[in-house]
Amino acid sequence: xNVTQVSLFLENKPGHxxxxxxxxxxxxxxxxxxxxxxVSDFGIVRxxxxxxxxxxxxxxxxxxxxxTTDVLAIELTDEAGSLLAALDTFxxxxxxxxxxxxxxxxxxxxxxxxxxxxxxxxxxxALQEEGYNIVKKIDIVGD
Amino acid sequence: MFNKDYExxxxxxxxxxxxxxxxxxxxxxxxxxKFYKTTFDNAGFSPDKFKSIDDMKHVPxxxxxxxxxxxxxxxxxxxxDKVVRIHSSSGTTGNATVVGYTKGDIGVWSEVMARTIAxxxxxxxxxxxxxxxxxxxxxxxxxxxxxxxxxxxxxPISGGNTERQLMLIKDFGTTILACTPSYAINxxxxxxxxxxxxxxxxxxxxxxxxGAEPWTESMRKEIETRMGIKAYDIYGLSxxxxxxxxxxxxxxSGLHVxxxxxxxxxIDPETGEVLPEGEKxxxxxxxxxxxxxxxxxxxxxDITRIYYDACKCGRTLVKMExxxxxxxxxxxxxxxxxxxxxxxxxxxxxxGTEPHYQIILDRKGALDDVEIMxxxxxxxxxxxxxxxxxxxxxxQQRFRSxxxxxxxxxxxxxxxxxxxxxxxxxxxxxxxx
Lengths: 143, 433
Hints:
The complex is a heterodimer. Chain A is of the alpha+beta class. Chain A has helices at about 15-25, 50-60, 80-90, 120-130, 135-140, and strands at about 5-10, 30-40, 40-50, 65-75, 95-100, 110-115.
């Protein structure tokens, strides 16, 4: 039920993101969503791809530093206030978000967001109890 | 203890012995070698002026440069028909230096190496695998003769072929490994990545005598944990004899110098003044018994300190601290003397692994600007930005507290820092001085 995110270390310099993406393109790896957290010297690219194992393998072969992280993909109603409601639930259940980002495509009439919690198991349990739909890996990544 | 009479000799008696032997060695060099004669004469020193050990300070130094300029045999003090062996250093900082040994010298060398292996817990029952290179380099043959003199069984496998090394450790029941510390780590890495069924704990390996390059306490811990052995530091330099100049004992708290064969002083590298006991400086060696290639006040450029303590092992020999750097590697940053080894230990302590790094020195106005580039490997990478920033600030803080220097820490991608064959270029100095 966890989604595997690929995290990649890059220096904040022209051409660096490009050369990493070229490695993925050459391997025909499709990026479903991507976000970058950056400071002045470097950035961390976080992405959901259709084949994380292959992506990590290819990146490492090309001497990039990367790792995988388990994150949760949670369905939210696509309307005003639904993210706020989710956050209310998180604070009620004392769940701490490290970071989050969204999928560009909708799933039916729902929006999907990726959350990185500091305690993923606690988050999963709490959110299921609260009636949230945690999207299964297979639904997002396909095959 | 292999030779208790000498290794545990009362200090007073040892001092007398040293004086007698120093007098012999200085006279031998003066009478039988042109270079020494000229140098002593020019300095207004002659062996008959040597009345007590304190007179050592009047004896001129022998520099690395002198060894090179008199290469290959200009510093020999016996005719070639007495010389039975030649060794040569790889010459990392210029030309190779060449040294020779008489039969007697080989005997001394074998003895001090036997003592070294015994200090690491070895005896005639042990099986010693010598994975130092055999050849012109002193490591292989030095350890080999020492182990034989001790009466142990020698496996003269030499360096390289890691898989075979590991198989022999298992099949022959090797108990003591002799190699460089980095090669020991290399063996552990090989097991971790390529031999999942291999377990060091199931072999008879109990100790390692590691030397020929400087290494840190963190590296010791890593080797001891991963191989399940005790790792002992051994030290030597071919100019003085090869490995066997000093070694750690069971206490692992400094290296005992075999003072019945080598006289040591620590000097201020700038002024050449002898420093009081316990102060850090450049260690200087004088051979007491060497025939073919005596060294008189040889400036090793290795930085350490020496001290006398009542060692629990029973040896009365002076101890030297693990060598932390060389005067040639020393860099002065904002007036602080810094050795690349210190930087390595800081990084090792923080990350438990030694990443590739490079220091870039630049001058901004009147101030030295220090940037440390650290390659991000998988062990230190995190998907959380806050963790990565914590890492850089941790490195910065350790630098401030250990070295008193504030530096900018830049994390870079793997393979960004240029690797040269052999020694990595750790410092780029762009300061225009």
